[in-house]
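Internal tracking record. Fields below are filled automatically when a chain is submitted to the structure queue. Please do not edit lines marked as system-generated. If the sequence contains nonstandard residues, flag them in the REMARKS field before resubmitting.
Queue: standard
Priority: normal
Entity type: single polypeptide chain
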Amino acid sequence: MRLCVFSGSSPGRSPGYAAAATALGAELAARGIGVVYGGASVGLMGAIADAALAGGGEVIGVIPRSLMDKEIGHPGLTELRVVGSMHERKALMAELSDGFVALPGGAGTLEEIFEVWTWAQLGHHRKPCALYDVEGYYRPLAAFLDHVVEERFLKPVHRGMLIVEHDLDGLLAAIGDYRAPLADKWIDRGSH
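SYSTEM-GENERATED OUTPUT FOLLOWS
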């Protein structure tokens, strides 16, 4: 099994973000779960890769050629795949993974988790998608998504497809227990 981790190429403001990335990488390695991620050696991306590698875990990085210098491709991974574009990066990461989790990050992290979550809503895959709400980082986003449901732009069943957890054990348990709704139970062509 492999988990795709989306995260920032920056460490962020709080030291707790890097600590959470390190703990996640170490725990995945301890459980024999491989890591698929963006391939960088810096920021939270580097922290999760380094921790998983230190624990003897498999770590596959996927990075576009144009970002090899900017994000500083990690030289010590199990495998580093260099691709031609961001589209190829995301498609390959999704193909290699059995689930997705977003650590704190910026626009790229949000775009990546929202894309795979949208794919799940459309029935393109049945893999779990999760936000690791380290230090309440995703609390305002989760509240906004609840607002989107209230405004009827998002169905409750689709909102429920995005796991939000602040505790590492709770996060991994929710991912392990995830069962996607069957497409015929949630596709309603007549409403939002």
